[in-house]
Amino acid sequence: MRTIPRLLVAALSFTVSVPLSAQSTTPPPSADELIARYLKTVGGAEKVQSIKSLRRAGKYRGSGGFEAIYIQENKRPDLVREEFVLQGMTAVNAWDGKTGWKIDPFAGKKDAEPLSEDEMRSILIDADFDEPMVDYAKKGNKVAFGGMDQVEGTDVYKLNVTLKNGDSRTYYLDTDSYVPIKIDDKRTIRGSEQEIETILGDYKAVDGYFIPFSIEYGPKGVQDKGKINWEKVEANVTLDDLRFKKPENK
User: Fold this and answer.
1) 202-211 pLDDT, tens digit each
2) Under 8 Å between Cβ of 211 and 43
3) Which of 58, 148, 154, 249 could form a disulfide with 111 if both were Cys (CB 3.0 to 4.6 A apart)?
4) CA-CA distance, 6 to 4, in Å (whole number)?
5) What pTM value is reported for the model?
């Protein structure tokens, strides 16, 4: 069974778990109610908005057992920079609010170049500081309650999000804590549908803001997924906007 740490659940005494057996007599929460409970769980809307930047650093473990250093920096409203360090080389993916770019030395490229269509879809999700379900209407997204389900024996609420680009994302929210323990993404790239599954866990507080420190992701149905474990997460660090800008090629 995949569960949220009991310390977090105990600290959230305001939550009310709705077991599957009670569905027939208990009205299901609306999508907006679930989002409000999620925000309250992770620290409250005011605390969340007070976090202006995040810097996460940890290890990425891929199939075959290889390991790399992975760093993600986010800054409001929607800036993100991701670094992948392996064998003395550093690959970069970034979005500066208008342009997505990358440097891929593993492909023998030292100059910055535009992200592919698939990479752009991923980076825009990563750039969303508060998740696509938060303030969804302002972002052009649509949200609907998707019923109840189970994830490895844990009761969950499903929250279906349709992004403004037409892609979809389903959050599986733990009924005790209201934080997502699983996310399914569906994307259509050049007419072909892709399904990505993400498993979230090990939620911890960073300056009063609860975030997952363990992330597993990969194509749906594939057992050997990539895994990220954050070892250090800092809130409200100083990040110059130039870190996210595409560098001039020499």
Assistant:
1) 999 999 999 9
2) no
3) 249
4) 6
5) 0.86
**35 Cβ neighbours under 8 A, 6+ residues apart:** 133, 134, 136, 143, 159
Structure token digits, residue 24: 């027939």
Distance from C-alpha of 168 to C-alpha of 206, rounded to nearest angstrom: 29
Phi, psi of 244 (to 5 degrees): -100, -10
**Residue 101 neighbours by CB under 8 Å, 6+ apart:** 93, 94, 112, 113, 114, 115, 246
Question: CA angle 185-187-189, nearest 5°?
Answer: 155
Give the separation between CA 45 and CA 32, rounded to whole angstroms: 13
- How far is residue 227's CA from residue 105's CA, in Å, rounded to a whole number? 22
The residue assigned the tokens 């007070």 is 50
Where exactly are the structural domains of the chain? 6-11+27-244
CATH 3.40.50.300 fits 6-11+27-244, yes or no: no
Q: If we measure between CA atoms, which residue out of 161, 199, 204 comes closest to residue 182?
A: 199
Q: What does the pLDDT look like over 19-47, one tens digit per residue?
A: 444 445 678 899 999 999 999 999 999 99
- The DSSP output letter for 226 is E
SS3 (DSSP) at 120: helix
27, 58, 150 from 22: Cα distances, Å: 9, 41, 14
